[in-house]
Each structure stands twice: as structure tokens, then as C-alpha cells.
User: Fold this.
Amino acid sequence: MAVEPGERDLLDLAARIAARARRGEQVEAFVARSTSTTVRAYGGEVESLTQASSSGAGVRVVVDHRSGFAYAGTLEEEAVQEALEEARDNARFGEPDESNGLAEPDGVEPVPLDLWPKGLPDVPTADKVALALDLERATTGRDPRVKGVRVAMYSDGLGEAAVATSTGIRVWDRSGTSYLMVQALATQDGETQIAGGLSVGRELTDLSIDEAAADAVLRSTRLLGSTNPPTQRVTLGLEPRLTATVLGLVGGMLNGEAVLKGRSPFASRVGEAIASPLLTFVDDPTDPRSLGADTYDGEGLARRRNELVSGGVLQGFLQNTYTGRRSGTASTGSAARGVSSTPGVSAAALAVAPGTGTHDELVAQ
Assistant:
């Protein structure tokens, strides 16, 4: 397999830092860099154009069950070495905790994923600007009740990261995404409603101006003339976007960090029914259809499919290395982090197993 230039330099830097671990010391280096472009259109003109790039390295040191962390906002080796020394110094003041320690290879093989949009890095900025402007025009010209937009936006992001540890982890990965977003202003009889539409993908060719505009127009116009129903007990049908929001809140309670901090109502309910037997709820970052897909987590362990609820029964929680040790289990490959932070725990790609029947059949029931 060919080695990408970015893989070589990021991995080599991370590995050199991790190799400087002293006797009785564990060292982890997380190095990353990213670029992004955001274009906002308003009134037929470019309201703002932002292009940014960032890079840096986070270094963690564990010694005598004490953990220290520091980071550098650059990939210059001298600055990363300084971060290593600062992390060592910080570890001296850390509270000893038997669960402190870096991740170690756990034998789970990574699922091969190609998450890099090969065409996106070469797209001219002018084409991205044109998308935002065209999106605004398409939205305002779709329905006479839509008098304007609050914002029409194109955005993308490309990033790569490497993790190396003195415990034997050495991995690199990269990914990218892009999206269109517009908020439509629908007006009728003196009433104005605002709603947004989206189109998301990896390559620019995955995006659809028509999809985003139609979504925003539909959502804003169907709110016109709406009224608040009287207080009552009803069966509630949630559309997909709102369903995702609700399940995201639930997913935030199904991780080991929330359990350890006493913030999960499900803490002692593993093996119990917590939902309808129709519900199977998973976090599956190995599914390439999800923009949250990833090959490795923030500690360099392979991502994996984690079943959280099966047939309504709670199966367990998402864990990173620390929370897994504290809870007597193991990491589920769910560590999440940035350059300037230590690993937390987070879902990456929550999904519900589909049921049967169409939307109309569901409503008819």
C-alpha cells in the first residue's frame, strides 16, 4: 500500500515523540492538521469568505498513575518537544489514579474505509462561492411565499491526524466533508416563518442545490398558519431530523463518562428494558455512509460497531480507555478529542435499525 505524504510526516513526528518515553513512563502524541472553507451569501453577494488552516500536537504523559497533558499549536518539532516536557512537569502535580494509563493495542482490526474526498482539495474557491450564490437564488425563486433567506452557505473541512504511543499504537487517518445550508424566510398574511435546508456529502459532486433549497422551502412554508394544539396526551410522530436530535440527547447519556460523573439515568440498568422492544440503537462509525465514520478513535484504537440498545434492552455504554478501566470493562473505541484536549467519550455515528412500513402507513396507525 502506498504511503501518503501526510501519513509519513505526521506519523513520523508522533512516533519520534512517543519514542522519547523514559523508564516507567508512558507517552502519547496526537498530531493533526486541517483546512476549511466557508462562504456565506446574502442579497446576491458574498457576505463573507473564510479560509482557515490549523495544526498542532497534544502530548500526554502517564507516570506513577499520574497524568499530565500539554499541547503545541504548531508541528515544529522543537515546540512539540517543549509540550512533552511541559506534560511531564504537569504529571508531577496530577492526582494518582489507578485507571490512568494510555491505550494499548486490543486486537480489533480496523475496518478499511476511504473517507477522503479526492476531488474536493482541488476545487477552486470560485466554484464554492458560486454554489452559495446559486443556493440563495434557487431558494428565493422556488415559492412566491419565500421572500428571502437569512443565510445561504457553503462549507467544507479536510483533516488528518496521527496517534503514536509508547505502548505500541501507531496509526494515521484522514477524512473530509462538505455541505450546503440555507435558511428560508417564508411570509404570508403578515406571518413569517424561518426554516433550514441541508445537503451534505464528501465530494462537491455529492451536494445538491435543489435538495437544500427544496428542504428549506418545504420546512418554512408548511409552518405558515400553524397553531399550538391544546394540552393533551397524544402519540407523537417525529420526523427524521428531530428524531436524530432526540436520539443524540439519549446517546449523550449512554457513555461511560456520563455514568462515572453521575449524569446518566441509565447507569445501573444494563440488561434491563429501557425502551420499546422495537428499538435497536447503535453507534457505528464503521459505516461509510455516515459523515461521522472514522477508522480510528482519538486514542488510536480501531473504531467498531457498538450496539447500545437491542430490542429495547440496554447493552452497555461507550467507553474510552480510562472510563473502561474505571468501570471494569474496556474501551469501545469511542475516544473523542482535539489537539488541545485529552480524550473524552462520544458517539460518532448513532443510528436506529429501521422498522417496517412507510411514513403514510405509520401515520395511519
User: Anything to note?
Assistant: The mean pLDDT is 95. The first strand starts at residue 25 and ends at 42.
